[in-house]
Amino acid sequence: MEVLERKQRTREQTRQGIVFTAKDIARREGWQAVSIRKIADAIDYSAPIVYEYFDSKDILLHEIRAEGFRFLREEYNRIMKLYRDPEKRLYEISLIQWKFAFEQPETYQVMYNLNGAFCQVSICGTLDMEEMANLVRETIFSFIPKSKESIQKLYFEWWSISHGIITMSMILKDQQPIEQSEIIYRDTLRRFIRNLR
Amino acid sequence: MEVLERKQRTREQTRQGIVFTAKDIARREGWQAVSIRKIADAIDYSAPIVYEYFDSKDILLHEIRAEGFRFLREEYNRIMKLYRDPEKRLYEISLIQWKFAFEQPETYQVMYNLNGAFCQVSICGTLDMEEMANLVRETIFSFIPKSKESIQKLYFEWWSISHGIITMSMILKDQQPIEQSEIIYRDTLRRFIRNLR
DNA sequence: TCAATGAATTTAACACTGTTAACTACTATT
DNA sequence: AATAGTAGTTAACAGTGTTAAATTCATTGA
């Protein structure tokens, strides 16, 4: 059965090749320039082959988005294991958010349907996202035990502030250097977390 | 010369018809569904006519974006005339931001390239946006006179928080009713403004 | 060894997109 | 009445997502 094994491995490889190529084109030319035929060309196949791996372009984008959330969730978990102090935890999680957005901007764009990236599938509802939400909510709760609604409110606020500064930093990156935006990001989130006490 | 006058008036009307139809389709079906032919059909013309008014789809989107910023700028000005207290001014401006985003979501989406809306033209650089930035910066300055850099930083923060909560409210509107999101918005911005003192 | 099966891959097509050139129909002027 | 100019159309090009049909090719069975 090693033939089947090898077959599956190369199948997994071309699958990853499709995902990689899509992100690669998006990074270089923007998501509006990503087309099935371009992807197929890059991996030396014809267009219909892509549909052997992803039922539609939308599902391909959804997969890339899901990978993004999965990656972030693992980073969240890593941080939770690394630190015990809730403040430190939330701050490090905030920093990871920034790091991720600027190291993998194409993925971040698909996750939030930004800048030409557009995936019809609802952004919410993935298990990874719910797990991330729980981690952050628990962290907030652990140093200010309040009602469920209050915690949810603070979580929503935290997420909005983080996402807001990240997206505005991307939009204004030509008028305001990202180094400066990053300082403001750290500053604002540090203050937000401090005020939770 | 009244013939020319009438001609120009109807020309202006079809121009507005194009803009209106584009926004109308976007509102109903999303920006990804907006096509030149659909717009042309709706105004009972053939597709090339649209190009008599806008050199490209991108420029049409740019125009809609510019209109959005122009509208907001006028609202900013109205508020500046209506109130004298800097805190009140900034708070009302914040509220207008929210109101605009949810009353004209298609326009807001084009302005920030959200959810399938994509206009290549740089978001920044319009006169209206610079004017709005100045109004907000002056308002912030008028009750905490600090260095130019500090004011810019606070302005950036304010904009990010506002935009962040608005976009997250749109994304999460199925899991969290917008009424509740609006409360959090008001709350957070009130706190932000209070902490400026 | 040859035929047949099955899978892997491609070609061709459909309906759509933005965009432009060529064409038609009509109106106003000389 | 002939001409010029304009308003609007059709037709086309290259590209898009997507699917069905056709093709190629290796493997199996007799």
Overall description:
- 2 copies of one chain form a homodimer.
- Chain A has 197 residues and is mainly alpha-helical.
- Chain A has 2 domains: 1-54, Arc Repressor Mutant, subunit A (Orthogonal Bundle); 65-194, Tetracycline Repressor, domain 2 (Orthogonal Bundle), CATH 1.10.357.10.
- Chain A is 77% helix and 0% strand.
- Chain A has 9 helices and no strands.
- Chain A has helices at residues 2-29, 36-42, 47-53, 57-82, 86-103, 105-111, 127-143, 148-171, 178-194.
- In chain A, α1 (2-29) crosses α2 (36-42) and α4 (57-82) packs parallel to α7 (127-143).
- Chain A is globular.
- The termini of chain A are far apart.
- The relative contact order of chain A is 0.10.
- The A-B interface holds A 32, 112-116, 118, 122-124, 152-153, 156-157, 159-165, 167-169, 171-172, 174-176, 181, 184, 188 and B 32, 112-116, 118, 122-124, 152-153, 156-157, 159-165, 167-169, 171-172, 174-176, 181, 184, 188.
- The structure holds a DNA duplex (30 and 30 nucleotides).
- Chains A, B: Residues 12-72 form the HTH tetR-type domain.
- Chains A, B: InterPro entries: Homeodomain-like_sf, HTH-type_Tx_Regulator, HTH_TetR, Tet_transcr_reg_TetR-rel_C_sf.
Which features characterize this protein?
homodimer; 197 residues; mainly alpha; Arc Repressor Mutant, subunit A; Tetracycline Repressor, domain 2; 2 domains; 77% helix; globular; DNA-binding
Chart the SSEs and their pairings.
Two copies of one chain form a homodimer.
Chain A: H1 2-29, H2 36-42, H3 47-53, H4 57-82, H5 86-103, H6 105-111, H7 127-143, H8 148-171, H9 178-194
Chain A binds a DNA duplex (30 and 30 nucleotides) through helix 3.
